[in-house]
Amino acid sequence: MIKTSIFRRCTRALLLLWASWAAFVFPVLADDPAPKVQLSISGATPREVEDTTEKAIVRDYSAAWAALTKALAGNRAGALEAGFTGAAHDELAARIEQQAKNGVRTQITDRGHNLEAVIYTPEGSAMQLHDTAQLDIQVLDGGNVIHSEHATVHYVVLMTVAEDRWKVRLLQAVPGF
Amino acid sequence: MSKLGYILLALATCLFASYVAHAGELNIPNQLSSGQGFSIPTSGTGTATFYLIGPAGVIKRAVHLGDAVNVAGEETRAAGRYVAVLRSGDSNDTKVFFVTPGRPAALNFLARPSRVPTAKPDAISGVAFVFDGYKNLMLESVPVNFSLAVEKSAPASRTVPAKDGIAWIQMASGRSQGAAQFVASLPATDVSVRRVVQQVAGDACNLHMKAQAMAKTIVVETDPIRDCSGNAVPDGTIVTFTETDSRGLSTVDARVKRGIARAELPLSENATISVAAGVVLGNEVHIRWASPGNGGAGAARANLKFKDGIATDGGRANAEGSATGGRE
Prior knowledge:
heterodimer; A: Nuclear Transport Factor 2, Chain: A; 2 domains; B: Immunoglobulin-like; 3 domains; 6-stranded antiparallel beta sheet; 1 helix; rod-shaped
C-alpha cells in the first residue's frame, strides 16, 4: 500500500518535472519562431483595411522576416521564395549570393516590428507600410564577427498579393519616417 | 619617479590602449544618392579588409592602409542602409550610412479594371509607383499626371502628388464606349506608361418592348436597347421576358442581336408580360382576350386587347384600347 503511494507520488513528480522542462525546451527547439509584428491600420488610405487582410499582413510579414533571417544566416536564397517577390527578392538574392561568395553571413535576432499601414490601394492589391524594426545584427566573416549592433531600422515596405499570400515586393531602409 | 608620475603613465597607457582598440568611424557621408561612388581615406600602414554590406550586395576587399578605398557607383545602386567596415587586425572602423533614391526615372502603373461600363463614377482606379533609374522607390513627393481619353473625346486629366513613391487616383469612366487610353506620366520627363481600359455600354436605360399576337404565340420584341449615354448594349446581352397568367409563370431569356432582343411566349387569355435586362426593369404589357361572342382561344389575332403601362410609376399609366394584332 505504502509502496504504491510512493510510486504514484514519484510518477506524478516526474511528470510535473518533464512538463515544466518541456515547456521551456520545446519553444527553443522549434524551427525559427515567427518574429513579433504589431500592425496599425488606422492611417491606411484610400481603402480601409479589412479584418482578414490585417491578419494576413501580420502573418505574412512575420513569415517573410523569418524567411529573411534564415536566408541571410545560412546564405540560402531559396528560403526567400516564401515571403519575397519582385525587386525585394532580387536584391536580397543578390546580397546572399555575394555573401556566399565572400564567406560572409548575417545573423539577425529579430526583436519585433511596429508596422503602420500607410497606403492600401483602391483595388486592394498592394499595401505600403512603415516598419520600425528592432534588430540585433551580427555580420560574420567565417568565424569572426566583423560587425555587431543593436539597431532600430526604419523600412518602407510594399506588399502585394501573390498566389495565396501577401509578399514583400519592396523593403527599403530609410533614415526615418 | 613619483607615485603621481606612475599613475599618470598608467593612465596614459590605458588611454592609448583604448584608443588603439577603439572602433573608429569611417569618413563617409551619412547619406548618399543611389549610384553615387565615394572614396574613404585611410591612415596607417599595412593591410586591412574593407567590407561594404548593403541591401543588395556585400563587398569584401583587401586594402592598403594609407591608400583611399574607392567604392564605385555601381556598388551603391540599391537604396537603403549600408554598413562599411574597415578591419585591421582586431580593430574595426565602421560607419552606417544610407543611400537614398536618385531622380525619378520610371513608373509602374496598375490600372483596374480592364473593362468598365460607361459613365460610372470612381469606376476606374490607377496606382502609379515612382522609381529612380535603379528601381528604388522614390520617397520624395513627385507629381504624377493621370489622363483618361477615348478617341474623339476630350481627355480627363489630373495631377496627383506621389506620397512615399505612390500616387493613386479614381476616375469616372467616360460617356462613350471604346478603348480608353489611361496614361500615367511624370511631368517634365518623357516617362509615361499607357494602359487600355475598355469602356462598354452600361446597363440598359428606358428598356421598352412591344408585343404582337400570332396564331399560337405572342411575339415580344424590344426597341433598340441603349444605355443612359446612348451607347448600344453589346450583342449577346441577356434580356428576360416573363409572362404571368393564371397557369403560372413563363420565362424566356433572349440574347440581344443587332441591338434588339426578341422572343416568343405562349398565347394566354389574360397575362402580364414584363421585360428586364440584368437589374433593369422595362415596361409591362397586359394582354386580355376581347372574347367577342366567346371567340375563345381559337379567335383571330385581331380579337386581342392590350393594356400596357410602365411599372415604375406605380400604376397602369396608359389607357386600355383595342388593337389589330398589335399593342397600343
